[in-house]
Design brief:
Helix content: 55-70%
Distance between the termini: 17 Å
Strand content: under 5%
Radius of gyration: 31 Å
Oligomer: single chain
Number of strands: 9
Number of helices: 24
Strand order of the largest sheet: 5-2-6-7-8
Shape: elongated
Structural class: mainly alpha
């Protein structure tokens, strides 16, 4: 024994070894916990687990991230003057970034593997995070002086790329279009966060050095206090927006309020937030198993038509019907047609309605007019109906179609865009006579393939917006709301005239189904309404579809579960008052009046089968002009974000510099 090595505390070498072990645990433990949580979350998201399991993985990752971020806030990355960034950190960052880029390139080359985009994005994200950690963690000296020019250069490249993409993307095609998208993605998701991180570190260090130079009696500093005031004001504005029912705007403001301080904090908080968002986007919405089939000879309801019949707008769909890029019929178990089988009227539903359907998606292949099956479907809806195994004799056939022929989705998009969508009124109203002719042909084709004693009911679209002078939370002017209400009424009238001309029943009560249950927009808060206004929901299917923003708004302006419950109640009441369900005689008076009316061809069509130009092309061009004309508002938004970013820098400068370093391994004595 030598010295005090026999004592319970051990000798100096033992104590040094324990300090070394403690330092290693403090350095590696939280980091490895963060990486393990990220791996677990990515695996669970890629597997497509049910939402409860995904939320559990997200909670565990949040806990691991909190430990790692807390350690970074407590110890920081600075290693004192003259200290050098660990080479292993730079090498690991380079390895992760290279691996992420390689995986993404393999995916772009067409390699199979639905998880490749998510895995590549996460690897690249972790690599960039470690690069930023190495750069921002460098001690005072030359690396610190380089923060400002490098950060400014990265932001300048981002701004230039965004401007060029905005000017060139509308007319780009093919490989040039793809190249512009890739360049824009690199600028926004690589250069922008790197530049913000470097400038944030430069700003925090500069404010701290000024406060330190002012002496210990200088107090907290005016800039830091103003930063806290700005952050508090933004937080209060989020609460006010929620109170005024501008929930989506509140979510966007809250995202900026969380992400910008996370970037400034010199931790991996921003990496954790983006990684969690990527995994949530990559996760597919829940799907329900298809209902078991039933034997023939029962009272069967047949449901045909578009998204208002299929149930789009709900939170879940039947398996295989929300497959982005393949089958996007989005048939929901909460659709009112499915709910009708739970009552006394029907035993089962032949559910053929499909989101996005136009009249030619119903027409049989033998029809003289246009006919086309939707992607992922074995045939048009009427062709599928005629292939039902015998004996098949439905008790009732209901159909809702015509909204897509009339361009209702295009109308909603135009009214949500900047500008007054009423200026595009002729494109929609002038198209309605053609919609009526197409509806008549489809109704007659349906009547032709069914037995004469099977009633067919044309179900109109419910009025989505209440007639209210004031409407908070709905980003439409009073004139635009009146235009939408009037157009829906005109569309329903077109359906009524076509039904009368084709000799099928029309159900007028459905128009007011949301109104009678007080579930229209502008009648109550959007979260309690029976129809979605702007609803963000990803899709199932390939990752390229799930990550596409164009697929996230499909639930907007569609009835949700509450809306379909009201529509089911309305239909049940109507069935009770029509026990005979007998098909009416053709309404010759309506047919004569329609035939006598002048019906010029519309200036543009809402279907690609039209001989003239598609209206969506013209309206998209109008929308783009409206967006370009509002560039001062974009500058105002960017300015507000810059103020919040600067406030975050000022607020974080109040924290003491976390320049504590972990205990270095003790120098080992050489053997004598």
């Amino acid at each position: 024994m030598h010295g005090d090595e026999g004592l319970p505390g051990g000798g100096p070498a033992a104590r040094a070894g324990r300090r070394d072990l403690r330092g290693a645990l403090l350095w590696w433990g939280p980091r490895m916990l963060f990486v393990a949580g990220a791996v677990f979350l990515v695996v669970e998201s890629s597997r497509g687990v049910p939402l409860p399991e995904l939320y559990l993985a997200l909670g565990l990752f949040g806990l691991c991230s909190a430990v790692f971020v807390g350690r970074q806030l407590g110890f920081g990355h600075e290693r004192g003057p003259g200290a050098r960034t660990p080479r292993w950190l730079i090498r690991a960052a380079a390895l992760l970034s290279t691996a992420g880029v390689a995986v993404l390139l393999v995916h772009l080359a067409g390699a199979e593997g639905d998880a490749l985009p998510l895995v590549g994005s996460v690897l690249l994200l972790l690599g960039l995070g470690w690069f930023v950690e190495a750069w921002r963690g460098a001690g005072p000296g030359r690396p610190s002086k380089a923060l400002l020019p490098w950060g400014a250069a990265l932001l300048a490249v981002t701004a230039l790329t965004a401007v060029l993409a905005g000017l060139l993307l509308p007319g780009a095609k093919g490989g040039f279009y793809l190249g512009l998208l890739i360049a824009l993605g690199v600028a926004l998701f690589v250069f922008l966060p790197l530049g913000l991180n470097l400038l944030s570190e430069w700003g925090v260090r500069r404010l701290r050095s000024r406060r330190s130079a002012a002496g210990p009696g200088a107090g907290a500093g005016t800039a830091g206090i103003l930063g806290l005031v700005v952050i508090a004001a933004v937080a209060l504005s989020c609460g006010w927006l929620v109170h005024r029912d501008w929930v989506l705007a509140a979510v966007l403001v809250a995202a900026a309020l969380i992400l910008l301080p996370a970037i400034v904090s010199n931790t991996h908080a921003d990496v954790a937030l983006v990684l969690a968002a990527l995994c949530l986007l990559a996760a597919a919405p829940p799907e329900q198993p298809l209902p078991p089939g039933a034997a023939g000879g029962q009272r069967v309801l047949v449901a045909l038509g578009d998204s208002y019949m299929s149930g789009e707008g709900a939170s879940s769909y039947f398996q295989g019907t929300d497959d982005g890029g393949r089958d996007e019929c989005r048939r929901s178990p909460s659709a009112y047609a499915v709910g009708l089988t739970t009552g006394r009227h029907f035993d089962r539903t032949v559910f053929l309605a499909c989101s996005g359907a136009r009249t030619y998606n119903l027409n049989p292949a033998s029809a003289p007019g246009p006919s086309r099956a939707q992607p992922g479907e074995p045939g048009t809806q009427i062709d599928q109906l005629t292939r039902q195994p015998p004996p098949f004799h439905p008790a009732l056939v209901i159909v809702t179609v015509g909204g897509n022929d009339a361009g209702f989705a295009i109308l909603g998009e135009a009214c949500l865009a900047p500008g007054d969508c009423r200026t595009q009124k002729p494109a929609f109203v002038d198209n309605l006579p053609k919609v009526r002719r197409d509806l008549v042909a489809t109704y007659r084709s349906l009547r032709k393939v069914l037995p004469a004693d099977v009633p067919i009911v044309a179900v109109p679209y419910p009025q989505p917006i209440a007639a209210a002078a004031r409407c908070t939370g709905v980003a439409l002017t009073e004139g635009e709301r009146d235009f939408i209400r009037t157009f829906v009424e005109q569309l329903d009238t077109t359906m009524r005239e076509a039904a009368g001309q084709a000799g099928i029943t029309y159900m007028p009560e459905m128009k007011d189904s949301l109104a009678t249950h007080r579930l229209q927009l502008c009648e109550r808060r959007k979260g309690a309404a029976g129809i979605n206004f702007v609803d963000i929901e990803t899709v199932n299917g390939l990752a390229a579809q799930r990550f596409s923003p164009a697929k996230w708004l499909h639930n907007s302006l569609h009835p949700n579960e509450r809306g379909h419950a009201a529509m089911r109640d309305t239909f049940t009441t109507w069935l009770d008052s029509h026990p005979e369900l007998a098909p009416p005689a053709p309404a010759g008076r309506v047919e004569t009046a329609v035939a006598a009316a002048a019906e010029p061809e519309p200036l543009c069509g809402m279907t690609y089968q039209a001989a003239n130009a598609h209206c969506q092309v013209r309206i998209r061009a109008w929308e783009l002009e409206q967006v370009r004309g509002r560039w001062p508002w974009l500058l105002l938004v960017l300015g507000a974000l810059a103020v919040l970013w600067a406030a975050s820098i000022a607020a974080f400068s109040l924290l003491p510099a976390a320049d504590r370093s972990y205990p270095a391994p003790p120098a080992r004595a050489r053997a004598r």
